[in-house]
Amino acid sequence: MTTPRHSRRGFTLIEIAIALIIVGIIGAAFTKLLASQSRFFDQQTNIRKARSVARNSMNVMLSDLRMVQDLGGIDSAASDGKLVRIKVPYRFGLVCATNGTMTTVSMLPSDSSVVAMAKYGGFAWRDTLTGLYTIVTPAAPLTSDAPVASAVPSRCTGTGIGQANLRTFSVNGRTGDILDLNAPAATGAQSVSPVFFWQRVSYSFKASNAYSGYLGLYRDVEGATSEELLAPFDTSARFRFYTSGADTSIVVPPAVSTIVGLDLVLNAISSRVVSNNINSHSMSTVRTSVFFKNVRSF
User: Fold this and answer.
1) Does residue 249 sit in helix, strand or coil?
2) How far apart are CA 274 and CA 42, in angstroms?
3) I need a surface site. Which of 90, 94, 139, 154 has the fewest CB within 10 A?
4) What is the pLDDT of residue 6?
5) What are the b/e assignments for 157-175, b being 16+ CB within 10 Å?
6) Is residue 7 packed enough to be buried (19+ CB in 10 Å), middle (13-18) or exposed (0-12)?
7) Which pLDDT score is estimated for 94?
8) How far is the C-alpha of 3 from the C-alpha of 16, rounded, in Å?
């Protein structure tokens, strides 16, 4: 007796086509999901990079801006808000004596690297009665009028008439200095009045060398080289200005003697465009206000 033969049936062309269509739909959806996630990740990465540029810029500037004297500390400001020039203190001490041509000061110990990198622009002494600083700018501060070791240190350490009776000391291997400044303090400077040395520093938003077509944040020290700190920034990045008693910052720079703080508008952008969008850079807006801590008496 013979066993009946069962026919073996395969897939029809229609079934194969339907299967391919279903696999294609699933594959297209999965590919779209992966592309979307990739673009989202790329966008978030670019936003983080832009935010890092803005925040690092803010941290760099705050260390200088917080020390600025709110009367005379702003040297100048550009009308478009892209540049401010400030007088930044970098070393502190006390006045010992002054005459018509020379001021002798006793300076506190200071980090040698800070002093070496700073470019002396002048000094300022504080009136102990009014609390106001008088800023003195020598004729040639970066050359012949820079501070030198005092020829008569007893003006600071001596106990006689016209001598300040101050003691120099050392901290962690750093020693204070007694220095002569080749410029008179303004009339009225008292012995042992607080004094600081300052350097003239400019912060500006201008064409970046690192990213063509965008702005970079520059720090320029008078007498030293220009340094591009961070980039890129959008063209809307700028400085705004606070005056005494004002609740909001203003766009147009007022008289520099009235500026008591700055509003930093740090609109940073990513260095790369978002994937699949050749015209889109991610932007991060960091805006912070800084008021000068070294304030006058009112």
Assistant:
1) coil
2) 6
3) 139
4) 57
5) bbeeeebbebebeeeeeee
6) exposed
7) 93
8) 32
DSSP 118: -
Break the chain into its structural domains and give their ranges.
44-81+201-291, 85-199
Nearest by Cα to 68 from 85, 47, 53, 54: 85
Distances (CA, A) of 236 to 80, 101, 145: 10, 47, 40
pLDDT for 227: 92
Both tokens of residue 203? Answer: 């912060």
Six-digit token string for 145: 């009028």
Reference 163, options 173, 151, 155, 171; nearest CA is 155
Q: Which two tokens stand for residue 116?
A: 């070496």
Bridge partners (DSSP) of residue 171 are: 174
Nearest CA to 259 out of 106, 102, 105, 87 is that of: 87
SS3 233: strand
Average pLDDT over residues 33-47: 78
Tens of pLDDT, residue by residue over 141-195, are 878 788 999 999 999 999 888 888 888 888 887 889 999 998 776 566 777 889 9
What percent of the chain has a predicted confidence (pLDDT) above 90? 41
Q: How confident is the model at residue 282 (pLDDT cuts 50, 70, 90)?
A: confident
pTM for the predicted model, two decimal places:
0.81
74 touches 68 (CB < 8 A):
yes
Reading the block at residue 242, the tokens are 């606070």
Backbone angles phi, psi at 81, to 5 degrees: 75, 15
CA gap 273, 276 in Å, rounded? 8
